[in-house]
Every structure is written in C-alpha cells, then in structure tokens.
Amino acid sequence: MRRSAAALLVVAALVLGAGACGGRATTHHKPGTSHEQATGGVGRLLSSDDGSGHRLRQVDAEGAPEVTVAVRPDSEDGWNVHLAVRNFRFTPDSVGGGALLGRGHARLFLDGHPLARVYGTWFHLPESLLRGAGGGTELTARLYADDHTAWAVGSNPVQATVTLGAATSAPDASPSAAPGTTLEISVRDGKVSPAPGRAEIKKGRTVRLKVRSDHDDTLHVHGYDKEARLPAGRTVTLTFTADRTGLFEVETHESDLLLTQLVVR
Length: 265
Fold this sequence. Notes:
The chain is mainly beta. It is 11% helix and 45% strand.
C-alpha cells in the first residue's frame, strides 16, 4: 500500500508540473522568453508579405502600433535616425518568441532594400553602411513582432518613410547637386517627437520640414521668416534653402512649442 501511495504521489507531481505551464515544459522556450512570449499570437496572419519575405500580421487600427521616423545629419559621419513609436515597445530580450501586440523590433530599408534591424528608438546610420547598400534616398522604418512577422493595418505594413537627400546617393552622383535635409516632427498632446534638439545643416542645403500636429497651428522658422499652416491631423512639408548661417529656431505659434533648432554653418 505504501509503495502504491508513493507511486500515485509521483504521478500527481508530474501531472501538476506539466499543467503549470499549459502542458508544455518551460525548457522548450527560447532563452530569455516566458511561456506567453513563446506561444503568443495576435491579429490575423495574412498570406501576403511585406516585400522582404516577412508575412503580414494584421491588427485593428485602434490601438495598433505606430511609428514615425526622423533623421538628422551627424556632425562626424552619416545620419542619426530617431524612431518615435506609439502603442509599441522594443523587446530585444524576447526576439524569436511569439507575437504579442505592441511588442517587437524595427527594420530599416533603403529604397526598399534591407539595411539594419533596430532594437531601440535611436540608430546611427554611417555613410559606409549606405554605400555598402548601393546608396539611396528613401529610408523606411517598419515595425515587426517578436516572431518576425510585420505588423499591418488594412493589409499595409506599419511603417514610416523619410528622404535622406542627395548626400546618400550612389558614389557616381553629381557632386554639384545641392544635398537636402529632411526632418520629420510630430506634435501630439502638447509633446514634440522626437524631442527638440539641434540639426547640423550645411549652408546651401535644401531643408524640408515635415510636421504633423494633432491640432490646428502655424509652423514658423525664425530668421528665414518661413511659415506654413498646420491643419490638424495632416502632414505639412515646408521647404526652403538654408542660405544664411547661424542658429535658427523652428516653433509653433499658437501652442508656442519649440520643434527643433537649425545650426547652419
């Protein structure tokens, strides 16, 4: 009887141990992930992909991940890329796990060609990497789940694109062409994204300010006396030539917010 009772206890312990993790052993998880991360899956997996071989994972527009991308010339080399995300956080410790809404990583593409995988909001893009990719002007940031499927809304990948300008074109591009700088800025709930900083601009460069505000406002570039109306919910592009040197502030009139500072040398 004692042997039978002991055997029953061993069997019960094994059953309970398996059930504690939904019937699957935790040792099967990818290192660094929980059982939820290893098995999670949300949205609807589409048969189509994002153009780079990663299938689309479609979710409802409400509460879906969002991303905007902004670039600033680095004072030493290349560009500093900033990704502003909403309803999303970077989870490098669980890459390779299951798809959980609002988690994952980003990938950068240059003119549609894969460039780099990103696990945070800032990324330095050196000129050597751009040259190695064959050059290009359109930088796209796209959001992915931990299982490498691409987040999508309405069958379209969740992404944002910014123009780097002629400075990143192929080596045989005309040296006389004036390079351009594009800055993407968004204003939501009284907050500026990316956080206001200084952008180094070479004199003679074409500057494109792409600004989106969640309320009606006016965009103003001090020193150049350039203005543009900002209708709520629309992206407005203000283009001008930086033909004078100095420090110039870019702000909104009605909300009196500093968006960025342009250092023209």
